[in-house]
Amino acid sequence: xxxxxxxxxxxxxxxxxxxxxxxxxxxxxxxxxxxxxxxxxxxxxxxxxxxxxxxxxxxxxxxxxxxxxxxxxxxxxxxxxxxxxxxxxxxxxxxxxxxxxxxxxxxxxxxxxxxxxxxxxxxxxxxxxxxxxxxxxxxxxxxxxxxxxxxxxxxxxxxxxxxxxxxxxxxxxxxxxxxxxxxxxxxxxxxxxxxxxxxxxxxxxxxxxxxxxxxxxxxxxxxxxxxxxxxxxxxxxxxxxxxxxxxxxxxxxxxxxxxxxxxxxxxxxxxxxxxxxxxxxxxxxxxxxxxxxxxxxxxxxxxxxxxxxxxxxxxxxxxxxxxxxxxxxxxxxxxxxxxxxxxxxxxxxxxxxxxxxxxxxxxxxxxxxxxxxxxxxxxxxxxxxxxxxxxxxxxxx
Length: 397
Fold this sequence. Notes:
The chain is an alpha/beta fold. The protein contains 14 helices and 16 strands. It has 2 domains: 40-293, TIM Barrel (Alpha-Beta Barrel); 301-390, no CATH class. It has helices at 53-58, 68-73, 77-82, 86-90, 102-109, 152-162, 180-203, 221-233, 249-260, 277-285, 295-301, 345-353, 357-383, 387-395; strands at residues 10-16, 23-29, 32-36, 38-42, 64-67, 96-99, 129-132, 137-140, 147-150, 166-168, 210-215, 238-241, 269-271, 290-293, 304-306, 317-319. The strands form 4 sheets. An 8-stranded parallel barrel has the order 4-5-6-10-11-12-13-14, surrounded by 6 helices. It has a 3-stranded antiparallel sheet with strand order 1-2-3. α9 (249-260) links the parallel β12 and β13.
């Protein structure tokens, strides 16, 4: 396939950690630039639960992700397009990314996803996947039972209508318990789908969007090598590591490492669905530039406030619903300079006990600001050659 030009987009590496693959860069899009490493917040259904885009921006958020699968089902891509795209509908003027819908379709279709490290907190939804074939996937809407067929071409068309800056190819996400033979066949089919996605993207390419390829291959080193090499050799703007990452953190880190060894060194690299603090530090050492996960915002809605593990016996959050915070009059986080950090832990504890919606909003703002502080500290550490020292300050190892 011929090379594809991506006008209005660029990725420039500005600093490199001498002891790892960690790097700083600037990712330029038609809706502005972001510095990397960075964290992408999930506005899955064109909304970050509990906060406005203005509050997200005030908390320092640079880029938002929305979900093709959910927006296909409701309200539908044509309604989003009638607003002028996601940016206008959400009143967000910064960069955006949409995924292809593959992870949601297949994770809801396969049994055993709860054992996958990226699916631990998933609720028990009914299995909605009806069929996978060469053409695409057939699934039932969780909303009204309507049958949909999603193909690589339709996924690109939907994402065109949604209008995000960065978009992804359609791929099949196999859970890690599936055997190697099926994983290999699935990966090969995903590669064919990726080529079809590229072809469809090129038909109406107007410089307003840039396409990411996705690395599959499950937990198998040789398949990850083959898939990463495939993505690197095709004219994608960026590259994402997706699919099964295993059942434990050690296995996940090995899988990500397999892929990173063979990716294109000059393209932005995204790790799909991972947002733990230690996981982000480790991912950066492997050369990952951006991350996304619902974890920070979901955690907030359930009473969890992110904290530096080195100050909390290695744990990455505290639960303000716990009784020990009833009379804790210290600020939520003295180290964080955001709107929510000024409130006491006792006040937020009370809000949760009183079932006040403000509780989740305040913690969501805090967790967003905290993740942006983390990203900034990582970037500064790389730029000043203090990465290992700063990592130890955060994680205490």
